[in-house]
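Case study.
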Amino acid sequence: MFEAKLTESTTIKRVLDAIKDLIQQANFDCSADGLSLQAMDTPHVCLTTMTLRSQAFEVYRCDRPLSMGINLSSISKILKCAASKDSVKIVADDEGADCAEFIFENESADRIAHFELKLMDIDSEHLSIPEDSDYQAIISMPSAEYRRIFSDLSIIGDTITIEINKNTACFSVEGDIGNGSLNLAQTDSADEKNPVTINVKEPVKMTFPGKYLNTFTKAVPISEFVTLCLTDGNPLAIEFSLPDEAGFVRYFLAPKIDQ
Amino acid sequence: TPVQNDLDEFFAVC
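After joint prediction, the assembly is written out as follows.
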């Protein structure tokens, strides 16, 4: 038996919004620790991973690990039927269920909606993602700042370079209409309202597709802050963490290389 | 023009 109840639908709605433009379908792996997912986009340029830990849920029960193959567009359609304050309960049989049940209940518990989502058999390879590898540079900034930088720059062009030196990050773009750049310095005091922190072991300069960096802004409502981790020649890791260590959405984006 | 890398080479299949 798998049963998981979120107090408010907002959490899962936001998480799905952050991933559904990158992934069409994926296996939601349920275990005693929580709900997780990993999938590459079709061109194999971006890997998206998501975890909702068991503590994110008001009720969480997973007797045996199970994998639910879900079409992201279908689950989003069903979750549109939940008001943001409604609770969401997901129930599935752990013995080869062919559908998952979604129950939405309003705050006064006098309106209860039931939906059944058909599950799919999805062949997916599980990838081993290096945990906390030794990054050359890590920058943390308010997620609203992230949105502003990459929505602005991706309008100019798709080739965005991130260069991080001691205490300064430079984001630049080259496009058909011209080019642009933006420098962001580490904020001075720790009690600054919107801190930017930059940790550099070695200066790094890498180029990425702006289209993807802009797509990741869909995760901004999840988290107040975002962390970007860079190592030359490796994928860029971008993490949006849910409050209270309830989980995260992480993207790994392949760099562009000069040939 | 920079060419996009493929992620397959970065992550091993378990």
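Observations recorded in class. Chain B touches chain A through 13 residues (CB under 8 Å). Residues 5 and 11 of chain B are 13 Å apart (CA to CA). We will return to this complex in the next lecture.
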